[in-house]
């Protein structure tokens, strides 16, 4: 995990459980006092990544509105004793990691976890990670970086890792898509499996 991508540290464990029901997986990073010699089961604080932060804020806002009839008369602060905010780490609106994460969680309904364990960007679960194994390893090609091309070496490495752990490798990137009616070109998220091109992740089993 890159600490420069952490937008907030929280100690609200109840929120972690509630967000998991919304398929938003946060990242406990603290050591458990009674089990300090292991790094599999972790505890507080909880890291909220920059690409997750918008969805977390939307959840908090909706919860606040539902629980407070006088919401419009109050000023909501981003800071409380249970949080520590890192605004310099907030992802920009055009950040491809934020766009892909939002698309996978909101539009496709996947559980998405950061993928440093497998050397990829995201790991995708079709169901609760506590009850099933992940299905896909996803790598993102960032169009804002100077290096926009893939080497054969990278493709082979990604494929070998995914085969070794019995998963499929997916590459996500932004591509221009022209609307026939309007003639406008918009950047759309595309997904490519190393086995075949797909327009819908759900067709890969």
From TrEMBL:
What is the organism field in this record? Cryptosporidium meleagridis
Give start and end of each tRNA intron endonuclease catalytic domain: 99-179
Q: Which domain of life is it from?
A: Eukaryota
Gene Ontology terms: biological process: tRNA-type intron splice site recognition and cleavage
Keyword tRNA processing present in the record's keywords: the answer is yes
Q: Which GO terms describe its cellular component?
A: nucleus
EC number(s) stated in the UniProt entry for this protein: 4.6.1.16
Q: Where are the transmembrane segments?
A: none
Q: Which reaction does it catalyse?
A: pretRNA = a 3'-half-tRNA molecule with a 5'-OH end + a 5'-half-tRNA molecule with a 2',3'-cyclic phosphate end + an intron with a 2',3'-cyclic phosphate and a 5'-hydroxyl terminus
What does the sequence similarity comment in the record state about its family?
Belongs to the tRNA-intron endonuclease family.
GO terms (molecular function) for this protein are: nucleic acid binding; tRNA-intron lyase activity
Q: Which Pfam families match?
A: tRNA_int_endo
Q: Supply the name of the protein.
A: tRNA-intron lyase
Protein keywords: Endonuclease, Hydrolase, Lyase, Nuclease, tRNA processing
Q: Does the keyword DNA-binding apply?
A: no
